[in-house]
Every structure is written in structure tokens, then in C-alpha cells.
TrEMBL record:
Annotated keywords: Hydrolase, Protease, Serine protease, Signal
Family: Belongs to the peptidase S8 family.
Record has DNA repair as a keyword: no
Subcellular localization: Secreted
Gene3D superfamilies to which the protein is assigned, alphabetical: 3.50.30.30, Peptidase S8/S53 domain
UniProt name for this protein: Peptidase S8/S53 domain-containing protein
Pfam families associated with the record: Peptidase_S8
InterPro entries on file: Peptidase_S8/S53_dom, Peptidase_S8/S53_dom_sf, Peptidase_S8_Ser-AS, Peptidase_S8_subtilisin-rel, Peptidases_S8_3, SBT
GO molecular function, one term: serine-type endopeptidase activity
Domain Peptidase S8/S53 residue range list: 38-461
Active site (catalytic residues): D45 (charge relay system), H98 (charge relay system), S429 (charge relay system)
Keyword Plastid: no
GO CC field: extracellular region
Amino acid sequence: MERVISVIPNHKLHLHTTHSWEFMDFSPGKIRPQEEGNIVIGFLDSGIWPESESFNDEGMSPPPAKWKGKCHNITCNNKIIGARYYNKFKSPRDAIGHGTHTSSTAAGREVDGASFLGLAKGTATGGVPNARIAVYKVCWDMLGCSNADILAAFDDAIADGVDILSMSLGSDDPQPFFDDALAIGAFHAMKHGVLSSASAGNSGPSPATASNLAPWMLTVAASSMDRKFISQVVLGNGEIYPGIAVNSFKLNGTSFPLVWAGDVANYSGGNGLLNAKNCLPGSLNSNKIAGKIVLCNSVLGDYTGVVMANGLGAIVSFPIPFLIDIALSYPLPATQVKTGDGDAILEYIRTTENPIGTILVGETWKDIMAPYVASFSSRGPNRLNPEILKPDITAPGLDILAAWSPVASPSGSPFDTRKVKFNVISGTSMSCPHASAVAAYVKALHPNWSPAAIKSAIMTTGLI
């Protein structure tokens, strides 16, 4: 075909979750607003919720004269200056929250009193709050992000005039560069002076799991900061076990009956011990757990069976110790405890005639071990080109508070009807926009620097 250089399969890729800037000793707002306002960050993601307070344009000047982008089916302002969509329903609005979270992490305006239902309360801000945002909606919930849409978005972003591209998405199975839409698009962007920042993936801690391996991309791993979310379990015998969760539900210290999921299987529904103790959907007997807190020994970290059977709360004993650093949000009072603590709670249930307990509302504790690479963060070496080290850098990606779409479940559960303006999530998707913001910061100070120079400056000045 005329003007066609190559044809590649249309693979589907996947999306890879305030205090973080302070922890990085990075002070947003150091650059003069007019310099920072000349920089446009393009986000290849799930869209944006433009009404979020993080995207107000108060005091911002009109977009830079170089800008040629468009806004499709939403009203833009001097903050969000571009919004395009590809495929599915005709809107760049964010129905799942991911794109809203990443764009506000990098370039959100200051919002006082931001919190997740009272947790992590403070001033939310992006790293470059005066930079402009351009949105390219290429990801569609469970449908993923197709190569065809991604390549079209790259072309549009380059033609529109973005300065930095932020891509919190990737493949679980890295493809050769000439078959990889992100690598191809990022190379094209690099040739036009645009640096692409991309997430390394969430397949850790096994080696050689990193994705987005092209040497012309800035590949970002995820690490912790000195804050963690704790939700404690208090038993009737006075023992206290620190669980990890973003738990906003208040039981007010009231104790409730405790049961082990393995003792309350829904046998009439064809479920046995294995399904029940993992608290899988439909596996628990609602007559036996209604109004009770259920201990789940869940390999998958699941709790759905408790919700479906009208349980009051869940204690998830997770047998994979290196994944205990992820604070999840649940649609009911719940927390995740270490396997040893889960065994102790089970022993209490087994040896007590009327076992009771409660789950305390979440708190923020200081994490003295920070920073460390998060357990889920994909590792090197580079399995496509071992001589090229990947990931390039790490940034905060654990328990990040940022803006959220009010139509999206904060926990990802279809049973969660809560509506929030800010959410706490984790992933290399959250670390990537931190690096994107730093790249935008450098670009604002040195507008003539090449993508390679910006990447080099970031990598050679990072702390070890």
C-alpha cells in the first residue's frame, strides 16, 4: 500500500493508582507560571473528568500560541486544552478514574482539603500545576487500549504540539519494538522533540517483568513514600493486629461476631472449602455470615463473597508476603493482614466460644523503611535487550492520592456505590505521571533540550 511502512497486529494493552511531591523534595510552583504554562503534557489514558477541582483554570493565561489541539465533546478551559477520544462512545470523559488520577498527579492545580473520605487530608497538587493538559482517550475499561487507537493518538498529540507524553499503560508481554505501538509511537515522538514517559508495569517482583523497554522511552518503576495506610483488627481478647487498607468505614469500636470463611461455605450453591476460604463470589452462606466479620484466607486477596452474602466486614489474610505493601480500598469495612496474624486470628476463632472483633477506621502511619521499590513493580533486566538497563528510574507509586471520576467505583468493585472526588490507588501508573511532571519541569526550564537530554538529566540527578 502506498505510504505504508509496516503493518503490526492490533494488540490490546492495559492500564498499569499529594504527599509524594513533598517526600521527593520537589516543590511545585517554583517555576514562573508563564514558563510552566508553556508546557503541554499529553496523557494517553482513559480520559478525564474535566469538572474536577484539580483542573480549574483560575488565573491561567490562554493556551500557548503553538497549540493546535482540539476538544471533542467536552468544554475545555485554559487548563485542559485538548481532549480527543478513539473508539467506543463519543466522549473523552473518564468512566473509570484512571486518567483523571494520572493527569492530576502530574499537572493538577492546588486543591485545599482534599482527602479520600477523610483519609490523607491535605492540599492536593500536581508536580507542575501550571502546565497544560491534553487528553487522548485510548483506554476503555475492560476493553483495554488498542494499538490502532494508540498510534492514532501519538500522531494527533505530535501534530497538536504536546511537549511531554505520559503513558500509564503497557503490555504484560513486551513485543519487539517494530511490533510495539508504544515503542513505535514514542520513537516518532522523540524524532519530533517529545519525550515519552511510560510505566514499567505491575508484574513484580519476579525478574525480567518490566515492559516499555525501548531505549528512547523513560521507563518508570514504582516505589514507596514515608506514609502508609493502616486499619487495625481488634479481637475480643484485646489482641490488636495492624492490617493495611484504605478503610473509610467507621464501626466506632463496636465488636461483632467473627467467623472463618471455611466454616460458612455455601454448599447448596456447589461451593466447597477451597472456594469458601478464598471468599470467592457466591461461595459463602448468607444465613451464617449476615452481620458478621469474616476471615478470608484468600490467595487472590478476594472479599467479593462476603459482600454478596451480606457480611458486615472482611479480614483478608493474604498468603503472599511480598504483596502486603498495597493498601486497597474495599466496599465494606475490611483490611488485609499478614499470614501469621491471620493464623493467630483463626486460632482465636477456633478456641473461643463466641469470638468477636472489630475493624478500626484507617489511619496514616509513618513508614520508616521508605523509599523502597513496591512489591508489584515490574523489575529488570530488559528481556528484549539485556544490555539496555530498564526500568530507568523509580518514583512514588504506592498509596497516591489524586483526583477521581465521580462515576467510577473507588474500589473497582461493582458493589461499591460511594462517590469520591479523590482516591488513593497504587501502581506504576501512579509513578509514571510523577516522572512526567519532572520531565515537564525540566522542559520548562530548558525548552530547547532534546528528549535524550531531559531523560539524562532526570536519571543522573535522581537519588540512590
